[in-house]
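ZP: hey, is the pyridoxal-5'-phosphate complex queued? I don't see it on the tracker
AM: it wasn't, my bad. submitting now with these inputs:
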Amino acid sequence: MESTSILLEANDIPTHWYNIAADLPKPLAPPLGSDGQPAKPEQLEAIFPAAIIEQEMSTERWIAIPQEVREIYRLWRPSPLVRAVRLEKALGTPAKLFFKYEGVSPAGSHKPNSAVPQAYYNHQAGIKRLSTDTGAGQWGSSIALAGQMFGLEVRVYMVRVSYEQKPYRRLMMQTWGAEVYASPSTMTETGRHALADNPDNPGSLGLAISEAVEEAAARADTNYSLGSVLNHVVLHQSIIGLEAKKQFEKIGLYPDVIIGPCGGGSSFGGIAFPFLGDKAAGDKRAENLRCIAVEPTSCPSLTKGIYAYDYGDASGFTPAMMMYTLGHDFMPPGIHAGGLRYHGASPLISMLHHERQIEAVAVPQLATFEAGILFARSEGIIPAPESCHAIRTAIDEALKCKETGEAKVILFNLTGHGHFDMTSFERYFSGELNDYHYPDEAVRESLTHLPKFD
Ligand SMILES: *Cc1c(COP(=O)(O)O)cnc(C)c1O
């Protein structure tokens, strides 16, 4: 059998997002303000529109996707679900391997799934500008694209190492009309402070978030937008899993294992949560479903962090969230999966991990490139370094099936293509990439800076 793509019609694009907050084993711990009290919706109004705040706090199971958003989704959705027959053959596994390919969006990743509704709701609320942060540039390019579609100005604070390593992502943002600054920058108090401490500061996602939030909080015409972590972003990404469910229905299969890379966790939640929703509803097919979040050994928040209240950014401007964290001032090494270099993880993912409803594994960098290259050579698509993490674990699970002879159905999230990450592949081929395990002492050190509420 040749590789097969299970396609849907444009009319099959879901009409509603799925909100797992309706089906949690217990209520989510609320975000806390600087006074240690649950953050009030009003406190978020300086940086988010009301519709987004409502989604952030909602426990409604189904939330309607605005028609304007569905129309833009049609540019690349429904995205293909592909059976990776050639990869199965290369591995000699009896497992059935499927991937949901999110690299078909104009920005090349899943991120426009949330950038488009975020730009839409801000435009509806009369906002003129958006400020945001970006690591490798995937989110920045997605919000630049979405902002352009609704006539919003966009300013992006891009982590300095990526700004220098990935000029093409910066140029994508500029092509879609956004302004891009290397973070730390001289545009904000936070940036100037960081540069005064260390003029060569390579930047971090936490620092870039602080800069973007500072700007949005200071300007009435400007809101902030975040590409992962928060509940509303995970909600928007549920489109991935909802489509995948329809695609599996078409071929009469159901996944046994779902695997995704996990940075902030929105794409992982996006693919896994609609299936966990089946499980919560008592669907027998989902009874033994395993969902595995894959992170780098260099930034192992779920596997080595602790479950505690911490800030979403380096400076502590955001409310504190209950999540797995390595400490908000944790500086991850400059690995190539830039989208996975975040100190925390979505509170939803964190809680489900803490409750043992989902699993997490950490994989070393070299093994992820090895897996990504095998995938490219068998399925044709060159995956993003972040996506290579899911491929690594999917291959490992498929190889286990080879030992046990089980024909499990394995689904993984191919969150993006790697066309703008070719220098990472170059460094892999020339032997310049290393594995990096974040030392336990360094994690312990940064965890001593967690906020204390008493
Ligand atoms: C941002 C990104 C990720 C990580 O996504 P989260 O939703 O934050 O976990 C994974 N893959 C690609 C290609 C990305 O751009």
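AM: back. The mean pLDDT is 94.
ZP: great, adding it to the tracker
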